[in-house]
Amino acid sequence: DGGITQSPKYLFRKEGQNVTLSCEQNLNHDAMYWYRQDPGQGLRLIYYSQIVNDFQKGDIAEGYSVSREKKESFPLTVTSAQKNPTAFYLCASSKGTGLSGANVLTFGAGSRLTVL
Amino acid sequence: DAKTTQPPSMDCAEGRAANLPCNHSTISGNEYVYWYRQIHSQGPQYIIHGLKNNETNEMASLIITEDRKSSTLILPHATLRDTAVYYCIVRVRQVGGATNKLIFGTGTLLAVQP
Question: Among partner residues B32, B43, B104, which is closest to A42 by beta-carbon distance?
Answer without folding.
Answer: B104
